[in-house]
Write a structure and sequence with these properties.
The complex is a heterotrimer of chains A (270), B (314) and C (280). Chain A has 270 residues and is an all-alpha fold. Helices cover 74% and strands 1% of the residues of chain A. A two-stranded antiparallel sheet of chain A has the order 1-2. In chain A, strand 1 and strand 2 form a beta hairpin. The two termini of chain A are 37 Å apart. Chain B folds into two domains: 218 residues, Rossmann fold (3-Layer(aba) Sandwich); 67 residues, THUMP domain-like (Alpha-Beta Plaits, 2-Layer Sandwich), CATH 3.30.70.1510. Helices cover 36% and strands 25% of the residues of chain B. Chain B has a six-stranded mixed beta sheet, with helices on both faces. A four-stranded antiparallel beta sheet of chain B has the order 11-12-10-13, with helices on one face. Chain B is globular, with a radius of gyration of 23 Å. The two termini of chain B are 41 Å apart. The longest helix of chain C has 30 residues. Classes of the chains: A mainly alpha (270), B alpha/beta (314), C mainly alpha (280). Chains in contact: A-C, B-C. At the B-C interface, helix 2, helix 3, helix 4 and helix 5 of B face helix 1, helix 2 and helix 6 of C. Chain C: It is found in: Cell membrane; Membrane. Chain C: It holds the Pfam family ABC2_membrane. Chain C: This is Transport permease protein. Chain C: It is a multi-pass membrane protein. Chain C: Keywords: Antibiotic resistance, Cell membrane, Membrane, Transmembrane, Transmembrane helix, Transport.
Chain lengths: 270, 314, 280
């Protein structure tokens, strides 16, 4: 009995490696979600519903849809958009509402920091969990697209890492922003920012629908970069221009993570 | 009919939830201006009784009259004339202190102007005037409790029901609440309260019933109950664990004849007698050396222990 | 001295606390409560009530609509996709507003902050409390629908003033048809775990497949049948008839009857469940 506690004490006293800490936090979230598995499952359905409703249902009304001079089935146009948008929405939900709850309400992070875990372990663990979930969803969505015959290139396999990249880009920035929020009222702003991106980032119609100046604005938004990247992959129109989107999203993700680290230290280690 | 001149009158009152019988037939008669208490541990049936008296819980058996009215028929009329301070605060945390009182007053069909005047008066009474504009969330536990009490007074009730009015408060906050309740009592408001704190029951009530497992096991004024079921003083003795065996059980047998009654608690011995100091002296004469001794007056706690063989707070 | 005693028993008091004479009178006593709540929270509802529906109109109706031919044969008689989708979005907005207002907020009243328990301790009855809360929900629906319809008017998608006014009243009915059953569920639910399912498996599929965005005739036959028995489809179809000015009286009566029956059954269920929750 005492031998066991001594062993545990010795283990706990040595700081955890980053990978170990992340695995631990993933395990904690897995335990917490085990009872709410249906939330995990139904989270996958939303983009599928949108694909069937707008892509297929409204798609039947859309005639002669052209993107970059090529006629394309409307559903095949909407599908990668939904995949990218769902990667964004999922991460944002985790990085804002759920993160805020753990930060301010159930004080989960305070409790974690009473152990050898560091603030960076927490940020990394939470983000990893979010990406794991997003990765599973996007792989599932890719299967749906395949079954519906909406994939026309082997490049499409890369759409899962692309979705992870979108998650990383939004996850870091949103966590950073969440550390500045004071009450649930502030979350109206999250909706105010994400809904226009969801609706206008070439998800349901090409940017040619906009006047030129507005088109430029849209092309600079992160979700647009994610949507066109996913679309280039599933339709097999990858080019060097695709690299711009990749670099954009990587820079955004890294910048976000750096801010989160500083902010979490200031908020939690006082 | 006794029911008509009683504030609360119950005979054979029962309450069951499925198979569980929370209240198993009690008789109660509370008179105007009286401060009446239900004393008992958690699960004794006090809160179930209070909810029935508040006319928000149908009775399962027996008879119940509140202000001479039948709660099954006249629930809203009864609730218009009583005040209820529930165990858990049901304040609206999204509103300010003043707004909480104002909107609540409107539930009683009182005109806006009248309610506003009463709100000011009550804020003063519970010493929350400076907090009138604060959100409820920002109040301390004691302040929330005082606000709940103020809210229960907005209709100038003839009877005020208080369910565990100071549970969960720190000692200082408790004394503030007691002081306010004592003033209400002096103003002639009939108080009915439940508590598992014997000091609260002694401080506030004129008469009380001791409840255990859904039944009333004793009734009377605090002093009468103590005189009837306990001795004047109690000596509490604690012995070290160095001695072998069930120390307290063993010692209890050795001192049995020194007191009217001996109770063994997990951590100490209670010796009931008229003169506690004298009893302690005799214990020492026997060559026993308790590590700690305390001589005190008998309380309702002792009455409860005598009647049920258990302590109030466990 | 007696006049200043806050709880003084039997002190002469012209304004006596009384029991309400009727459910309506009881609900009216809660007017100040709901006014106070709304004064404090209205700002937080701007995005969900007014901005969200407009963004959908612009994205779907105007921009995506630019890629859709205005063929009345394909669009249930509408001459543009915008004219087709606008009434659908109005009705869907009534639904989402109501579901949002009758899930978490109701759970809050019966479980988290227990505000209803304070109300029931006053001389109010279960029916009074329900009526007041549902009236507040309908007020929210009325406000968002009125603003939505008014904003859509300059787009030229409505055929007549009378039709729009009737369509406005229909939104109250759609709101009530969703409000009472969801309220009933929330009032009796043990915890909030099923709310996510109501949103994800109820509200979102209804929003997307009940004829708001595309004619249900475009669905496969079994799915079409399924869509036509959902309450939102009845609301969408009725609203669209009125805004397009192509009213089929018998179909309209069926829609109204369906929604009225649903609201009434929901009310009875809600009364039973709330009674059990508050008075046990």
């Amino acid at each position: 009995m005492s031998a066991v506690t001594a062993a545990v004490a010795r283990q706990a006293a040595s700081p955890l490696g980053a990978r170990e800490a992340t695995a631990l936090l993933l395990y904690r979230n897995f335990l917490a979600y085990r009872r709410a598995w249906y939330i995990f499952l139904t989270g996958f359905l939303e983009p599928v519903f949108y694909l069937f409703s707008i892509g297929v249902g409204v798609g039947q009304l859309v005639t002669g849809f052209e993107v970059d001079g090529r006629t394309i089935e409307y559903a095949a146009f909407v599908a990668p958009g939904m995949l990218a948008a769902s990667a964004m929405n999922g991460t944002i939900l985790d990085a804002t509402f759920n993160f805020f709850f753990k930060l301010k309400y159930n004080k989960l992070f305070d409790q974690m920091l009473a152990t050898p875990l560091t603030t960076m372990d927490i940020a990394r663990g939470e983000l990893s969990w979010s990406l794991l979930r997003g990765g599973i969803y996007s792989a599932g969505f890719l299967v749906v697209m395949l079954l519906m015959g909406l994939v026309s290139s082997w490049w499409a396999v890369l759409v899962v890492p692309a979705a992870l990249l979108i998650g990383l880009a939004f996850g870091g920035v949103c966590m950073a922003l969440t550390t500045f929020m004071r009450s649930w009222q502030d979350f109206e702003l999250v909706t105010l920012a994400t809904l226009p991106m969801f609706l206008f980032s070439a998800t349901f119609f090409p940017v040619t629908a906009f006047p030129t100046w507005l088109r430029w604005v849209v092309e600079c938004t992160p979700l647009y970069r994610g949507v066109v990247l996913c679309r280039e992959l599933t339709t097999g129109t990858v080019s060097w221009a695709s690299a711009v989107s990749v670099v954009y999203l990587v820079v955004m993700g890294v910048a976000g993570l750096l801010v989160v680290r500083r902010r979490l230290d200031r908020l939690l280690l006082t | 009919m006794t029911a008509t001149d009683s504030m609360i009158w119950a005979q054979g009152l029962r309450k069951g939830f499925g198979d569980v019988e929370a209240v198993r037939g009690i008789d109660v008669d509370v008179r105007r201006g009286e401060a009446f208490g239900f004393l008992g541990p958690n699960g004794a049936g006090k809160s179930s009784t209070m909810r029935m008296v508040a006319a928000v819980s149908p009775i399962s058996g027996g008879e119940l009259r509140i202000l001479g009215l039948d709660p099954a028929v006249d629930g809203p009329e009864i609730r218009a004339r009583i005040g209820v301070c529930p165990q858990e605060d049901t304040l609206d945390t999204e509103l300010t202190v003043r707004e909480n009182l104002f909107v609540y007053g409107r539930y009683f069909g009182l005109p806006r102007k009248e309610v506003r005047a009463r709100v000011d008066e009550l804020l003063e009474f519970v010493q929350l005037t400076e907090k009138a504009g604060s959100m409820v969330e920002d109040l301390s536990g004691g302040m929330k409790r005082r606000l709940t009490i103020a809210r229960s007074l907005i209709n100038r009730p003839e009877v005020l029901l208080l369910d565990e009015p100071t549970t969960g408060l720190d000692p200082q906050a408790r004394h503030v609440v007691w002081d306010r309740l004592f003033r209400l009592k002096q103003q002639g408001v009939t108080l009915v309260l439940t508590t598992h704190y014997m000091d609260e029951a002694e401080q506030l009530t004129d008469r009380l019933v001791v409840m255990d497992k859904g039944l009333i096991v004793a009734e009377g004024s605090p002093l009468d109950l103590i005189a009837e079921h306990s001795t004047r003083e109690v000596a509490e003795l604690r012995f070290g664990v160095a001695q072998e065996g069930d120390t307290h059980e063993v010692v209890a047998r050795q001192v049995e004849d020194l007191a009217d009654r001996v109770e063994v608690l997990p951590d100490r011995l209670l010796l009931y007698s008229h003169d506690g100091e004298e009893t302690v002296a005799k214990v020492h004469e026997r060559g026993l050396e308790p590590v700690a001794t305390l001589v005190r007056r008998s309380t309702l706690e002792d009455v409860f222990l005598r009647l049920t063989g258990r302590t109030l707070v466990d | 001295m007696a006049a200043t005693t806050p709880g003084g028993a039997g002190s002469p008091d012209p304004a006596r606390a009384t029991a309400p004479a009727s459910t309506l009178a009881g609900a009216l006593r809660l007017l100040d409560y709901w006014l106070t709540v709304y004064r404090r929270t209205w700002k937080g509802t701007i995005v969900s009530s007014f901005v969200t529906p407009l963004l959908y109109v612009v994205a779907m109706g105007v921009l995506l609509g630019g890629f859709i031919e205005g063929d009345p044969a394909e669009l249930e008689g509408a001459t543009s996709y915008l004219a087709f989708v606008a009434p659908g979005l109005v009705a869907a907005q009534a639904m989402t507003t109501v579901i949002g207002e009758t899930t978490y907020p109701v759970m809050d009243m019966v479980k988290w902050h227990k505000v209803y328990f304070g109300m029931i301790a006053a001389p109010l009855r279960v029916g009074d409390i329900m009526l007041a809360h549902l009236a507040f929900v309908l007020f929210r629906v009325a406000l968002t629908s009125a603003v939505f319809l008014a904003v859509m008017a300059p787009f030229g998608v409505f055929s007549s003033v009378g039709g729009v006014l009737l369509a406005f009243l229909v939104q109250l009915l759609v709101g009530l048809a969703f409000a009472t059953p969801v309220y009933a569920y929330a009032a009796g639910a043990k915890d909030e775990s099923a709310f996510n399912l109501i949103f994800r498996l109820g509200m979102i599929p209804l929003f997307l497949f009940s004829g708001a965005f595309f004619p249900v005739a475009n669905l496969d036959a079994p799915l079409e049948l399924l869509a036509t028995i959902t309450p939102l489809w009845h609301g969408v179809d009725l609203t669209r008839m009125l805004t397009l000015g192509r009213v089929d009286v018998s179909a309209a009566l069926v829609h109204v009857a369906y929604l009225v029956v649903l609201a009434a059954l929901g009310w009875r269920w809600a009364a039973r469940r709330l009674q059990r929750r508050l008075i046990a």
